[in-house]
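Protocol step 4 of 5: obtain the predicted structure for the target chain.
Materials: sequence only (see below). No template structures provided, no constraints applied. The aim of this step is simply to have a reference model before the mutagenesis design in step 5. Sequence pasted as it appears in the construct record:
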Amino acid sequence: MSLTPNIIFDLDGTLADSAPSLCKAGNLLLSELDRPPIDVETYKGFIGKGLHKQVEQLLSYTGGVPQNTLEKHFELFCDLYNADPLSATHLYEGVDDALGYLKALPSRLAICTQKMEKPARVILKGLMIEHYFDGFAFGDSLPVMKPDPAMVNFSMEGFGSGPLIYVGDSETDSLTAKNAGAKFLLFSGGYRNSSIENLGHDAFFDHYLELGSLVNQILDDWN
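Step 4 output (structure tokens):
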């Protein structure tokens, strides 16, 4: 009998292009410091290691972190971002159909993201995909973050055993999947800094129309 797979998804750069919203908040923060704005493509390079690191990298890139003020600027960034995490954020093409297909296999789906729960929930609800998921791990769920596999384990708490697949877009996701013992499917359209060839993965896809067949190939090999 086939086992029901557990499929874990990253959020930023994997299911949703949230960089425009994050960059908007970042530029509002920079304006408070009388620094010029940066473009979205540059900002994408800061995403993936958690919001605190994101703010630190933003400040370092634009002139340095003002002495003893990182926490203050982090809190200000959170206020600016939490005020509007959704309006400039959108799903990648085909995500809704792919999630519906995977859910119907059947499979158990979970979110594992560095994003804090409050804005992540707003995005998941606003983009109308929250209902697909049975488990969640957010950046403030545990005292550790990805690539610690505890994040993956937390996201699928209460799930039964089965093939483990992780879908993500970045170096952090690749290492998270490896640490969790999961097959890693790399979405090529996200925020990675490395080439596809230099980023460990079991398979990659350019469009969500391809995801279902990749999952089925893994399950066929598993069985």
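Step 4 remarks: The mean pLDDT is 96. The chain has two domains: 6-17+90-222, 19-82.
Proceed to step 5.
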